[in-house]
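pasting for ref. prot 1 ->
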Amino acid sequence: MTRAFSRMSLALIPALVALSGCGVNSVPTAEENAKAKWANVQADYQRRADLIPNLVETVKGYAKQEQAVLVQVTQARAQATAINLTTGDLTDPAKVQRFQQAQGQLSAGLGRLLATTEAYPQLRSNENFLALQSQLEGTENRINISIKDYNEAVQAYNTTIRTFPSVVGAKLIYGAQPMQPYQAVSPNADQAPKVKF
């Protein structure tokens, strides 16, 4: 009995070594990292969505003549927060694109709102508005950093599931699918917006 056990143990050692080298642990580690980075993107978008009502209320008191822009921003915010993207949806390009389009519309509305404040100096002099504007700019920077971190995590995950030896564990054990990176949906996203007065 001990001899049979010894043979079985010797046969198991190469199998365990082969299994440990096929990416069994690296695939879920990379996937969880990408999901965590996506959670950061969502948290930063939520922070922006929470900040906008305060910004809108502050600006409303000083910019009655620009009510249309404020309504547009509020509607874009409602639309952006209505689209939820779970980590399970990250492999569906259509769902990721819908989420990105809604966020892009909100960003465009915010750009118009900030341009409006430049056109009306009395708004710039308000301390509350400046504080909220600073927070909003900081939030936009956080979003950009989170998107960059997410895309890097997706790249690492997608590379992991496509390279040997991890591809063995990725396909056979996990059935891993590539995740979708966050991409600009506007055709002119690479160009700075032009502000005209």
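and prot 2 ->
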Amino acid sequence: MQKSFQIVIVEDDKDLCAGLCKALKDESRSIVSCGDLKGAREQIFLTNPSLILLDINLPDGNGLDLVKEIRDKNLSYPIILLSANDTDADVVKGLEIGADDYVTKPFSLSVLRARVNTQLRKSENVTGKETVSIDNYSFDFERMIFTVSGEEVSLSKTEQRLLKLLVYNQGITLSRDDLIDRLWTDGAEYVDENALSVAIKRLRDKLQAKDYIRTVYGLGYMWVKNNE
């Protein structure tokens, strides 16, 4: 069976973004696009992208900061930077911070397609690229295998998404409203807030993680960084 790839394109120029989506989409690829860092984080940290095309200059920040954030979480998604900054120093900085390739604007779509294909070939046989290890926990978000002290734990789809949001944002308080919006994305107009409390409790109990999943009263929840 042909492998399916998901490409996340982060580009605020709507015309260019539409052109990239059209040029890169085929029967083996799904394309997700967004125009800012906020949207990029939501897509990247909730899905399993095969590759990220990332503009450096975005309306709400610098794409290099997102590259660093991704690499600091030990995630090895292939990243191709897009930028009008074409000096050697700019290219070197982008590659040294963790990007896999750097394409300067304007560029040929055929050349970009070739570079995308190269990165997808490199990553096609890589496994375990989404494994996060914290103390006695191992969370493999690619194969959806979660262990505590070597013992596998079964998590529901909602619990898996909740865990991913928490561990990819260690030390950051995620508000209840934000978690509800990002966990229940089926278009439901109303979600009982108690559903989040139940999901948190079940996740804590299954992972024996009461010292890791902290309730920040009046705000939301966080996975405590370094168990501090």
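The mean pLDDT is 86.
The longest strand covers residues 5-10.
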